Structures are given as C-alpha cells and as structure tokens.
Amino acid sequence: MNANLAERFAELPHLLSGHVLLSMSAILVGLAISLPLGIHAAGRPRLAGVVLNAASVVQTIPGLALLALMVPLLGGTIGYAPAFLALMLYSILPILRNTIVGLQGVDPVVREAARGIGMTPGQRLRQVELPLALPVIVAGLRTAVVWVVGAATLATPVGASSLGNYIFAGLQTRNWLSVLFGCLFAAGLAIILDQMIRLLEVAARDRRRGLAMGVGVSLAMLIMVSVAPRFIAFERAGEGGPVIAGDAADLADETIIVGAKAFTEQYILGALLETRLEAAGARVDRRDNLGSTIAFDALRTGEIDVYIDYSGTIWATVMNRPEPIHRHAMLAEMTGWLWAEHGILALGGLGFENAYGFAMARDRAETLGVTSLADLAPLAAGMSVGGDAEVFTRPEWVMTRDRYGLGVMQTRAMDAAFMYGAVRDGQVDMISAYTTDGRIAAFDLVVLEDPAAVLPPYDAVILLSPEAAANPALVAVLADLVGAIDDAMMREANRQVDLDRRTPDQAAQWLANEMEAGGADR
Amino acid sequence: MSSGTSPVLDIRAVRKTYDGGVEAVRDVSLELDAGQLLVLAGASGCGKTTLLKMINRLEEPSGGSILFKGEDIATLDGVALRRRIGWVMQGDGLFPHMSVRRNVGLIPRLSGQDPARAELRVREMLDLVRLNPSEYGDRMPDELSGGQRQRVGFARALAGSPELVLMDEPFSALDPITRDALQQDFKILQAELGFAAVMVTHDMAEALIMAQEVAVMREGQIVQQGTPQALMSQPTDDYVSGLLETPRRQMRAIAELAG
Question: Which of A109, A117, A202, A207 is best to mutate for the B interface (most B CBs within 10 A)?
Fold first, then answer.
C-alpha cells in the first residue's frame, strides 16, 4: 500500500465517525420532528400546505450555503452544531412530504371502515393509516438518508470533520486519491444505510421479526463501530519534528485547537503548528478547511485557539479599511486593533508574505507587451480573469478592477486548485494568484506589477484567541515560529505538495528541518 | 326497564343539514325491532346513506334523536357505540395489510379479549360465513374473490356479537350469482343469530327479496314505508311505482319465458 493510501486509511476512523455521528443524529432528530408534524398536518390541508412550503424553501437553499449560514446564526459557533442544524433542516422535507402524501393517499373506503367498526383515532393511525402509508414514508426517509449522508461532506468548511475532509483537502492539494476516497466512502455509506432501511421496511411489511432483528443489529453495530473512535481517546504518535528541550511538558494535558483555511499553504502551516504543539506536550485538534471569515469568527469566539491569517485579509475583510497602507504600518495597526477590539493576539509574522497578485503566462504577457496591471486597460475587453470563488467579491479585486479599468474583463470563478493550470493552458488570460504558490515558478507565470499599490500587503501572522493569548506556555511555544519562514521556504513547501504530491505533513516536516538548519546557521 | 318490548332502534324526527344549507335528511322517524331487516331504498343522493351513518354516529344529526336499545346515542361514546354495532360497507372495506384472521379478529382484540378467545371467535365467524378458517385465515384480502372478501366483511362485522348491523350497499359490487348466494346466506345468518339490521340499497329487487320492512326515501324524506307486499300492492305515488317498475318488468319477462 502506498504512503498516500496508508495516510488516507489512518484518517478514516476519525472522519468516518464524524460523518456517521453527524448525519445519523441529523436524520434521527429530523425524523423525530417531521414524522409527528407530518401526521399532524396530513388531516389539515391548509397547515400541510404551509409546512410543505416552508420545508421546500429550506430545500432550495444550496447545501453549502445552508451550512455556512448556520455559523453566523449560531453567533459564530463552528463545528458540529451548525452542521447538525443545517443537515437536520435538510432531512425534514423528504420525510415530512412523504408522511403527508402517504397518509393522504390511504384509500378513503379503508379509512371509513376503520372508523365504522369502532377504532379510536389513535388505533386508526397506528394500525391502519401508518402501516398503509409506511412504504411512502420509508421512501421519504431513504431520500433523506441519501441526501444527508451526501450533504454531510459539505460540513468540512464549517469545521465539522466528515468524509468531506478528504474531498476538500484533496481538491486543494490536487490529491485525487483523497477526493476519490472521500467520494467512495460517502457513497458507500449512503448505499448501505439506504439498503438497510429498505430491508427494515420489508421486515415490517412481511412481519419478519428475524430479518428486522438482524438488520437492526447490523445497523446498530455499523453506527457503533463507526462512531466509537469519537469516544475512545486514542494516542496519536508524535510525528517527529524538533523537540525543544525544556518546553516539552509546558502544555502537557492541554488540548489546543488549530484552525486552517482551505488551501495548501494553510494545511502545511496547520501541520507545522500541530507538530510544534505536540512536541510541547499538547493534544492537538485540527479544524481544517474553514471558510475565510468562518476561521476568524471561530477564533474570536474561542472555537479555535490558533490559526494563521494574512494582514491584508484582516485589514480589508475584518477591519473594513478601504485603502491599504505600508506593510509594517499595517501589521502594527492591525495588531493594535485586534487586541483592542477582540482581545485577539497577533503574535507576529511568520516571515513571509502571501499576497494576492495577478499572474499571466510569461509568453502571453510578452506577446501582449504587458508587465504591469496598468498596461491592461486597453486590452481588457475580450480578456478573461480566473480566480477562486472568494476573490471576485473581495475588495482586492474590486479596487484593482476599478483602479486599472478592468471592469470589462470577463470573470471566471473556479477552484484555486485549477486556476494555475488554466492560465498556463490559455483557458483564461489572467488569474488571481497567491504569491507563495509554487506553481508560479513551475508553470512559468509572471505576477504583474501593481504601480498604484492597490493590493495590500499580506504578511502571514499567527493569531491567538483571547483565551489562548492568556496562556504564556502556548505563546512561548509559538513565538519560536515568528520570522522563521521566508518567502522562498514557503513557496518550496507549497510546491512540494502541489507539484511533487507530497503530503502537507511531509512539507511541514521539511519546513521544520529547514528552520532548524537555518537556526543552526544563524 | 322493559328492553324486551322496546325497539332496538328508534329514530325520532332526525334531520341533517350540511354547511351551506343542503338538507340531506328531513324529519325522518323509524323503528326497528330485534331480528328484523329494514331496507332504506331510493335513488342516489336521497339521504339514505347519511341516515345510516347517523345511526352509529359517523355523522352527527342536526336535530331529532336516535335511541339504540332505549339509550339516546348522543349520550354514548361514539367509538364504544360503533363497537356494539356491526358495520359492512360497499366494496368490503377490509384492511389490505391485514390477513383475514386479523381483519375478523380486530374488534374482539380491540375490545380486550384474550388472544385465545379472539382466535376462537375468528374461527367461529369464518365458519358462519362459510369460509374454511384453516384455508382462508392466513390469506390477505387481495388473495380472495369479491364474494369471499364480502363474506370476510360480514364475519368482521359480526365478530363483536352486535345486536344491530348497518350495511351500506353490501352486495352491489358483486356479480349476480355471487350476490344471490350471499343474500341467501345472509338471511340464514340473520335468522340464526337474531340481530337487527339496516341495509341501504338502490336495488329495489334486492330490497323486496330481503327486507321485512322497506323505507323508500326521496330528497331526504321517507315517501313510503311498509312491508314488501304493501309496497307492491299499494305504492303511494308515481315515484315509488317508478322504482318498482324495473323488478316488475323483469318478473313478467321471466314468467312469460316459463310459459
């Protein structure tokens, strides 16, 4: 078994248990709400119309948006709670609709016979109407299970671990095996659960106690076995990294939650933080693949203890400052603002800048005679610019567009994993690039100059939640990282993952070794 | 209390007006003695089914009163009342997800009889309606013919030993030969068990053959009530004569064939 596959399997207990726990609890609570509601509404056509419409509106919200909306709705809470709430709402419609339709579809003659021979309303419901509507209701439940188990992969960006971690992380690091792994396990889980429910229905219909018992026991076993890792503390072996003598016991028995956004550099830095903290004796809980503002909100509310963000991002999207200022002034002002407003400690810069820049393929840029964003205005009509979903709504693009007159350019949103290849292959003329991305050099791209200094500086900074900021041992461990990584090191680490297909853990290990070597040199 | 002499069913000036002012039943009074079969006849929409459903409180009267064995049914619990009164409907109304045995045993079980006694009752009932319990007990309704299903319907209605059975067009979905067999069996059954029955039908020939007493309804009112012989000899108006015309013509035609 190759290393990639072995690593995927190693993650499986944690991710599968998260996925099963999340989707099963969402379905159970969804069922507990929608079944009684459906029964209540079935005999009341007006109420049935109202609840079905409400549930349909929820259903039209795209899954990812519904999950993301739950985070601000819960006051910035990330992780299990918003994911559970969104998926639970998602499971309601199919069960509710089929309960109402199933009960309304019971033959009126049979309904009247039940009344006529003297059954109470409760007996009619339990012994006649529900059994006759059961196939329709179960069909709704099966739809809900397939939907929810599938949609639970989208819980990753709001900080709940699920099989979606394989997909999101794999997409960002172009690890297609990981993407496939996540898809296969999520689909397999959905199919198995769907078939088990079908068998339970057959058992109920044919009154086959043995079959019902068998399926029920296997279902319970499946859920218990997959959820078990969640409740059994298992030791994660320290994955190497320089152990700093003296610090080893400083964070003993503390659990530190490390956040990371959804791109390669963040996975590497997350892994680096993890190694450092574990070397100091801490237990580390990783929350990868957080949306950009979700990560900040999570830090503010103490859902995560530490993550790496970029000064220009905080400046524009959190502080809402319209104009960028000089790099060091920005860092200082941001640090003061975060501390005063939120009690968040900006511990310091890692030493490199990962700026937004706009990049073109070198030969294309040379053919057009373009070296700077200022050269583009006359050529902009008919050109296209690619970027990740986020960039076109960010002030960086809006200001660049307006300052350099690029409004006529066609914007094409795509996943960050694809944009470098897209500009290399001429599918778009320009992309929004991250300046530390290893593919800029590897694909022979040029980053256009920004003579008007519209694009803010993006120093990578270590941010600590108010609670974490009050922990001197934690601050001491992380302070070692300040100024430890330069642009070239970060670009090389990113390149190793994006192009050499090494894992973020391996790249973090490389960074740690480089830092140690650099430290010895100094 | 002399329940022996009072009628099983005593309907007094009952009315039913639906929301919107439609008068389905107007001022109907009827009496029914133990062991008798009363047929409510008339064209569809004449109010006969509404009247039937008011007897076991599937519908509530807008006025008047109905006494069952001397008690005003408005003072009785609807569910308890319906368990004391058999109910047979058009197209059998069997529960498609229950076996014959469970359908027939439903009322005894719901009334809290122990399973062994309920099972005994099921076998007894199926024997009564001429279905072999060991052959038919475990079949599902869709594995039976129309006639067999209706026999199960009768068995279910009679399983609670009712003193009154209400029947809404019980034979109308059956082919003529099956219908005739079931009608004859029903008369034997009634004579044997001694229950009173009210049957709704739009088939005058069926009414004349089966009933001790026929009430012809039109637009919510009884236009004539009497024995089949009285109806045949002295129809009160053209409406009743019209309803009797079809069976008369059939009888004449058959008599001519016989020579």
Answer: A117
